[in-house]
Amino acid sequence: MSYLRRQELTGGERRLELTAGTTALLVVDIQERLCAAMPQAVVEAQTRNVGHLLTLAARLDVPVIVTEQYPQGLGPTVAPLRALFTGQPFAPFAPFAPFAKTSFSAMRDAPTAEAVRATGRTSVVVVGLETHVCVYQTVRDLCAAGFTVHVPADAVASRTKENFNVGLQLISLAGGVPTSTEVVLFDWLKVGSGEIFKEVSRRLR
Question: What ranges make up the beta strands (E) of the chain?
Fold first, then answer.
């Protein structure tokens, strides 16, 4: 194997790895009226998975940024996720202050883009709605800006399975890394010991 090939593999491995100290979590538009238009079983599973990610992000000091698309019309972030920010682990994120936007891509909203850059993190985990619209366009712009982007497929959703699948394909073509909630959680943790690992394991049962 040539030296160049070894370097390419090493770079690819770095792109696939997530560490809590270099990652931010971007929660895109998980709002009441958008969720009401989704298959409810899908929304319930997605909300639960995003909750797992938020909870561990708080424990590991992963910065969290939340956006809301035209909240006057689509409503606020769903109550189960808003409620997480009032719990003790989320003191670093209080008060709950989502970024309102009208652009589909969160990175084309100047305050949101600045908040992402201000974290100083090089990787972003993106979750939210809808996979083929706001999530995809956000991922595309993040990748173009040089961020490594991971998208847990079980923490994003679209109104139809067809658009969900197309969205994931486009995310991959744009340079995003399709993944799952558990992959992200355990990559952040790195080791299967300690109190935080036990907390995560209990939540996933």
Answer: 23-28, 64-69, 99-101, 123-129, 148-152, 156-157, 177-179
Number of domains in the chain: 1
Rounded Cα distance, 104 and 37, in Å: 17
Q: Which residues of 104-118 are buried (b: 16+ CB within 10 A; e: fewer)?
A: bbbbebeebbebbee
Tell me if 7 is assigned to some domain: no
Q: Is residue 14 part of a domain?
A: no
> How many CB atoms neighbour CB 151 within 10 A?
27
φ/ψ of residue 72, rounded to 5 = -60, -30
Q: Is the pTM of this model over 0.85?
A: yes
pLDDT tens, residue by residue, 185-197: 999 999 999 999 9
SS (H, E, C) 101-112: ECCCCHHHCHHH
Residue with tokens 């961020």: 147
What CATH number corresponds to the domain at position 198?
Answer: 3.40.50.850
Which range of residues forms the domain containing residue 194? 27-204
